[in-house]
């Protein structure tokens, strides 16, 4: 067996730089009070020797772990099949990586996982948390508040125990829905239906409200509940056609729902957009751009939302403030992307 290669030590860095071990430690681990010429000598020694700092020692000095928890309140089956989550995680990961922070992914498959996640956050393993896809009766916000961990939420607050001072990033769900439905009205459609998302999530509730802002209290049979999945879209579209055969347009709460609706319309012999126009929400390109026909949809910048969540949290951590002292929450605009379905 070959002899293991020894890793360079902090003592070796100090010797190469011609400083004490304590000085080398302060520079390497982010401490203050070292003159700039000495800082440069230590940094040069670190680079020449290939020294890797000990994270535990670094944390003792900086009181930071350079790690952020991402908590998604959905089962694994949804997270790894819905491209929305991949885009949001990509935005978060890019921002954290740019600031040399690690992403720790925590999933809540069921209610039994909530206490586990809260214990982990309270245990001092991470500097803060990014939390999204919460439901209105979700206990996580209250548990996280009890853990006293700086947190930024994805989505407008509205859940049980949620604080009005919570910092969040969202898109203009209501305004985007209004624009979609106004577009359908402008096409001359009169029997416009809405397939909702799960109404225990603020995004779905806001999109339903945007539909109602334009349509008023129209035929209640034209609103059918669903769950943001293609299967849910199929079931809801089938129910709509059975209830209201004269439906001539559908605003679906997200792209996956719209894809399910398109599948049923095709099976029932309805032409899109000639017989029934369809609009989705999200503009997840692997879904909207490859549907048949290509899907008209409301675009939200999902990856940028992830970036902004991470940026807001990191700015709070850098200044050492409480979450309530962080920059204001952000609501991004939406854009209607016209393709073939409407």
What secondary-structure arrangement, pairings included, does this model have?
Layout: H1 10-17, H2 21-28, H3 36-49, H4 55-62, E1 67-72, H5 76-79, H6 83-98, E2 102-107, H7 112-122, E3 128-132, H8 140-147, E4 151-154, E5 167-171, H9 173-186, E6 192-195, H10 202-215, E7 223-224, H11 230-243, E8 249-252, H12 255-267, E9 277-282, H13 285-288, E10 296-299, H14 302-319, E11 330-332, E12 335-337
Parallel strand pairs: 1-2, 1-3, 3-4, 4-5, 5-11, 6-7, 6-8, 8-9, 9-10
Antiparallel strand pairs: 10-12
Helix pairs in contact: 1-2, 1-3, 2-3, 6-14, 7-8, 9-10, 11-12
Describe this structure in words.
By secondary structure, this protein is of the alpha/beta class. It is built from 14 helices and twelve strands. A six-stranded parallel beta sheet has the order 2-1-3-4-5-11, sandwiched between helices. It has a six-stranded mixed beta sheet with strand order 7-6-8-9-10-12, with helices on both faces. The termini are far apart.
């Amino acid at each position: 067996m070959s002899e293991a290669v020894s890793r360079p030590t902090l003592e070796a860095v100090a010797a190469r730089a011609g400083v004490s071990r304590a000085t080398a430690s302060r520079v390497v681990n982010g401490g203050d009070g070292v003159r700039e010429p000495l800082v440069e000598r230590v940094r040069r020694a670190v680079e020449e020797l290939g020294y890797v700092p000990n994270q535990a020692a670094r944390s003792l000095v900086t009181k930071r772990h350079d790690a952020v928890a991402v908590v998604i309140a959905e089962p694994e089956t949804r997270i790894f099949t819905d491209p929305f989550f991949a885009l949001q995680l990509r935005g978060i990961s890019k921002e954290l990586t740019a600031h040399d922070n690690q992403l720790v992914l925590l999933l809540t498959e069921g209610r039994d996982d909530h206490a586990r996640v809260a214990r982990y956050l309270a245990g001092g393993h991470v500097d803060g948390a990014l939390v999204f896809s919460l439901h209105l009766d979700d206990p996580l916000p209250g548990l996280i508040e009890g853990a006293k961990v700086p947190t930024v939420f994805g989505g407008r607050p509205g859940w049980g125990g949620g604080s009005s001072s919570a910092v969040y990033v969202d898109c203009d769900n209501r305004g985007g829905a209004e624009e979609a439905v106004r577009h359908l009205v402008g096409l001359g459609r009169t029997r416009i239906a809405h397939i909702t998302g799960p109404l225990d999530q603020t995004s779905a509730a806001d999109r339903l409200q945007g539909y109602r802002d334009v349509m008023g209290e129209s035929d209640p049979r034209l609103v059918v509940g669903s769950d943001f999945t293609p299967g849910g879209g199929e079931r809801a579209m089938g129910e709509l056609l059975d209830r209201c055969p004269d439906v001539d347009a559908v605003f679906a709460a997200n792209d996956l729902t719209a894809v399910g609706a398109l599948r049923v319309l095709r099976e029932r012999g309805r032409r899109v957009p000639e017989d029934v126009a369809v609009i989705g929400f999200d503009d997840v390109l692997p879904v909207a751009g490859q549907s048949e026909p290509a899907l008209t949809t409301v675009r939200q910048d999902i990856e940028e939302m992830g970036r902004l969540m991470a940026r807001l949290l990191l700015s709070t951590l850098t200044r050492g403030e409480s979450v309530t002292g962080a920059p204001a929450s952000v609501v991004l605009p939406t854009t209607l992307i016209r393709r073939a379905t409407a």
